[in-house]
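Trying the structure run again after the queue cleared.
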Amino acid sequence: MRIARFSHQDAIKYGIVDDTDLVVLAGDPMFAGFDTTGDRVPLADAALLAPVIPRSKVVCVGKNYRDHAAEMGSEAPAEPLLFLKPNTSVIGPGDSIVRPPQSQRTDFEGELAVVIGRITKNVPVERALDQVFGYTIANDVTARDLQASDGQWTRAKGFDTFCPLGPAIETEFDVDAATLTTRVDGEVRQQAPLTDMIHSIAEIIAYASAVFTLLPGDVILTGTPAGIGPFEAGQSVEVEITGLGVLRNTARNA
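Done. Tokens:
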């Protein structure tokens, strides 16, 4: 089932994607279930929004692909390398990524995003996937020069608009069959199967939940493959994952 969050006639709603329509849900499906209102909205008439606005946090995993760790000049970490993005960094499909004046190099990082559906604390690996509501696409936008100069990642990863999510949440997703591809103005910059991840989704959820409680609506970004690089104002960045669609955003300067 594919769930979208959208704007239509000045109201924000949730809907099940059904071919060219959205079947309108009675409320946020994470809390209200999948009861429908009986209304349908053509996709062409709806503006898709970020499919979830994390009520708490965006948890990210660094260097979770060996080739990306190598291009960053380091070894792959033995355990998941966690950092956080503020929920104010989240934008939706079609929204502009704003390149901040503090940075001279803003990079794309295409990633699989996992949406948590239950309060999760100290969950074992074998039950970790039971906590997942669904999956979507993310771009872990990074001010690369600030990441290097600051010596830690909060500012470089945390600017407003630095976490595009979308276009929808897929509740049933085969990670083992999916490939991630990132394009800038149509040119492929990243491409890798999701099976190249070092730490699995279940391992990441278990590890993170041993540190802090994961709440419904929290989002976990699972890492990016090799090929990261800069983009400029006016360029279009697309992240595509098999079975999840395409997340497309255009950049502009602040």
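Residues 169 and 233 are 28 Å apart (CA to CA). Worth checking whether this holds up in the mutant runs.
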